[in-house]
Amino acid sequence: MQRILSALSESAVLLTPLRSEAGEIEDYRIDAASPESVDVAGRRGKELVGRRVLETYPTVAGTALWDGYLDTLATGTVYEGEPFTYEEVGAGYPQQSVYSVRATRLGERLIASWIRHDASDREVRRLSDMQRLGNLGWAGWNLTTNSFVWSDQVYAIFDRDPSLGAIALEELPRHVAPEDLARLGAAVQRLLRAGQAVDQPFRITTAGGVRHLRLVAEAQTDADGTPVEVHGFFQDLTAQRDAELALRESERSVLVQRGMLKAERTLAARLQDTLLPIPEQSLELAGLCIDVAYVPADSGVNVGGDWYSAIELPDKSALFVVGTWPDMAWPPSAPWRSCGSPRRA
């Protein structure tokens, strides 16, 4: 019978009824299983052979499935049950799955097959699209069976061949950049020992270069508070980090440019003050009281190109000159205030 089941591509097992001395069925033993048989706890194929149904799946007792098995053995009628939710409590935490079961009598035994309805193909495609668009992938680690699984997107994020399998949670720090090793290792230890949820950024090196990743994970614990399972996701933040670095570089460039402009304006103002000083008080020239007011035409820069001069001539008269450079605003603002009556100006 095992050879026959080994040729099947669906979940199917051979059940042998175990009877009491009074002839009543107390349990069933799995004596053969197809390679694709997977139960709610992830046990597959040969791992199921030899297990007893009620010892392995105790909540089946008294359900419509149990009654259907009994009726099929008694009458030979094929049992096809409605989809039902099965909940298993293992290591102190519940796991639920939805199944449709079919049972057929084979002599004094049963052939039971089932279909798991936990996720439809459409839901799987949606989940895959969400992971791809968010550049993240889910991961799970069973600490009691030392088994772990990654979604396809996690393999893409780590640039890892799926045939190599997922990386154990304890081994994860070995694959990160040395600068991030201590922080990620401490976070993983908190998760595994104390069951504390983590949200930790870190970097890895791949064939395509350095990638900035984020691990978000939480632990499920048993009745004693010991972590037994870890669920979480990895997210690739490389593109986001590159954009942040580019923005910072742009801001730095703007600040440098502002500093250069400020320095240039300061230098221009000093040069102008050297070449064209503004008197701090009135000047006496040829019997005149001279005041200067200089206001550039352009605001903000505070540097203009106008020029002026006042000269006392040998005959004690005053010569006033006001001008502007080409392309500069005219008239310049250089008013003069007379303190007396000059002989000639």
TrEMBL record:
Keyword Hydrolase: yes
Gene3D superfamilies: PAS domain (3.30.450.20), PPM-type phosphatase domain (3.60.40.10)
Alphabetical keyword list: Hydrolase
Pfam families for the chain: PAS_3 (PF08447)
Domain PAS fold-3: 149-233
PANTHER family: STAGE II SPORULATION PROTEIN E, STAGE II SPORULATION PROTEIN E-RELATED
UniProt name for this protein: PAS domain-containing protein
Lineage of the organism: Bacteria, Bacillati, Actinomycetota, Actinomycetes, Kitasatosporales
